[in-house]
Amino acid sequence: MEKEKNNKVVIENLNLFYGEHHALKNINLKIPEGKITAFIGPSGCGKSTCLKSINRMNDLVDNCRIEGKIFISGEDIYDPRTDVTLLRKCAGMVFQTPNPFPMSIFDNVAYGPRIHGIKDKKKLEEIVERSLRGAAIWDDLKDKLKKSAFGLSGGQQQRLCIARALAIEPDIILMDEPTSALDPISTLKIEDLMMELRKKYTVIVVTHNMQQATRIADKTAFFLMGEVIEYSDTDRMFRNPVDKRTEDYITGRFG
Amino acid sequence: MDMFLEKKEFLNQNKKFFLIILLSILMLICFLLPYVQIIINQDNFCVTSLDILMNSKLHVTNAGSEADINFPNVMRISVFLAVLSPLAGVLFILLKKRILAAESFVIGAITPILSLITVSDLKRQIVDLNISSNRVYIGFIWPFFLTLIFGIACAIFSVWLNGGEKLAEAVFFCFASISVGLVFLITLYMIISGLPAIIEVGIFNFLFGFEWDPSCGKYGILYLILASLFGTFGAVIIGVPVGVLTAVFLSEIASKKIGFFVRPIVELLAGIPSVIYGFFGMMIIVPFIRNVFSDFRTFSQKPVVGDSLLAVMLVLAIMVLPTIISTAETAIRAIPKSYKEASLGLGATHIQTIFKVTLPAARSGILSGIVLGVGRAIGETMAVIMVAGNIVNFPELLGSVRLLTTGIAIDMAYSSGLFRQSLFGIGLVLFVFIMIVNISFMKISKRGVQIDATNR
Amino acid sequence: MQQIDKTESDVRKNISLYSKRVRKSDVVLKMLIYFSALLTVGFFILLIAYIIVNGAGYISLDFLLSSAESDGLLPIIINTLYVEFFTLIFAIPIGIGAAIYLTQYVKQGKFVKLIRFSTETLAGIPSILFGLFGYAIFCVLFGLGSSIIAGCLTMIICVLPGIIRTTEEALLTVPNSYKNGALALGAGKFRTIFEIVLPCAVPGILTSVILAVGRIMGESAAFLLTIGTGTKMPKEVFSHIFSSGRTLTLHLYYMSGNGSVPDAMKICFAIATILLILIFVLNVLAKLLAKKFIH
Question: Domain A7-250 belongs to what architecture?
């Protein structure tokens, strides 16, 4: 019972189809609260799709059909009663390439709170500062909040996007290969930030970089051809994988 | 390299060279032949180019009275160039500067056109001698055309000396330059023909005068300007929200099937001739306004007849719709998907995303569509003429109005003298408006491109 | 710190996801969007239906082919064909030549910028100003009077920017590899353009011609000042271009304000119907060509 309570996200028998294509096959995952969980696997294995179904971003794709259940804090997010905007507020997302809005830095971060109805300027400023501090970028940006977000470097833009996700006060942060478009130094900074975030949020990260998974993740799920082959503590998986295919992948024989 | 053209070259270098010299000599001989023919009351005066160059006046005797007619300076310069340019052309050919030679031959060919422009000036001088204008004929005789044709032929031959490829490029270049020449010519002509009236009436009286009554010598076009501005403004106020929201519908909300039906409708709307819009306005909108507002009176206590500024606004709003819709739709579609994903990922609804992210990001494209629509509205004539009522009034919503464009179109057929010149003055004012709109459109759309470039 | 965060997240947890709600502002905005689209489509249907219902009944072969001087339509149709023909025969070579220069010879530089600026400016000038210019230059200065040829010369200026732009787009879609292949085989540039580039761009060029046909057919303001009001049948094939002759659009305009002809309004509806049908056909043709173009 105690163990159940600590699982923030529970995926049960999830099947997902893009038209005829069976993209996710019978996924069962229990993702613990306050930990970093990494999804690894070769490209096209369904790890991003699985991540996106946690905040229902897959709804946007035409002819996408989902069977099975995903529970967040015990509530089924595919229940017809579920408010999708509230769900996405609860599970913030950071994308593969930094995608700030064409607005000022301040407006970028304040965008989320504003659409969720916060109009008070003082409060907004407070949230922006807290989020930027949370994304460890406040000191860099505090003097140029009114400037366009496009003037920032790629790494700064990605941290800005993380700050933007933090501003809506989510419980879960979903990251879809957040460092794949960045240089190694920016990548390290983002990884440090993720370790920080773990203290307050449940983080789920998709990565194609196994070193990254070993560096940051508490638990790791290995995806192959739309299936979860293996899911366990990161250390255990990388030291002695149970499945032959996992071993082949992490030793670099394919993928 | 140019095997294909080499084979087809039916003139060798020497023959081309010989032809150029021959045609140049003919151009020079034309100089000595009768050039302009002036007939006043059956009296025939033939003037050679040499006369024009040597004497600045033509002595005219007519029905006992004698007078001098000055040759306009432009005409004298043009015949001077007509001599100089073939000589220069031959010189350049001998020096093997073929492009320069071609250019001087082209200048030689242009000279007849230059002297054409001066005809109205000549004619006015003769009319000033109390001779009725329909008894005066000014014509150009065949040496005039020969100069034109020989000049162009020489230019072609001198480029051809460099081979067929060069000739082809030169011809294409000429075609491409035509639009430059046209813009230059139109601007020049608008100013030349529009300014006299504005100067004569006085720029302040012309632009800010309240009364337009050419029969009493009153040439104030303030009401026309205001009517044009109000009409355009109204069209934008009505057309922009509908247009932009329809564009949103097409790009963000409509399913593929519905878009498949709606998009051709927008394209068809853009292609429908303006007279049809005018006719529709005349048959539907005008009676509608007349019926709905039948109990109202205009400020000047006239009954509402339907032909009104409101009808103009409505018709123009419909006409700018397709422009705005298609530009706005293109702009919205160009917005990267990642913006929308980011916004939805933060828990915004689809509609919030459209209004808070997509539309602001597409604003420069939408703005350029609006400016394009303004240009279209301010220059529209035929549709407006059929619903405006065309009485010069202070523009009020339900009263009859006359706009800049309709002002030109209505009076052109039966105006003369200063009245006609003042119509060209209106044309100049309209031209200035259009150029302002044009240039701001180019600025905005260029800025849009730059913003898009930095976004990627 | 940890403590506070825990309680905060506990508070958040109390908000259930099961609270689907609809924002009022979203509903209002969505209704506005649908309303606008409906307005556009509805207006279009109203316009088409109104004109065709009133006009279709009056169209007959007799009506189209009557050559009576006051209300016969045949001379008007012939005038329109004249205008189309003589405008296009000048405008197409010039437009295509200009587009070839801009895409195949020189692509950058100050002069090309000037050419582009001029073309864009020409495209933005309203036709009434072209009419004014054409009247002053062609009718008065060249002494052509109000005649079909003066109208054609004016119209060339109107359609030129459109033809240049569409042809340019068509030429740009021809892959450079085709051209380079021909050039590598030793063909001259001119030959390459005529034998390789132009044939590949034919559907696009045809589209530009069709658009120009539509533009000329729908034009009225430029003709109003330059082409006169003649309604006579041509006496001789070529000299007809020097006589005045109104086009379909102008005929519609003059008829709509003419009370003396008994069936004036019916004639207007019929002409409007014909114009709408022709525009529709041209649009469909352009669409089909564009589709072929993509393949």
Answer: 3-Layer(aba) Sandwich (3.40)
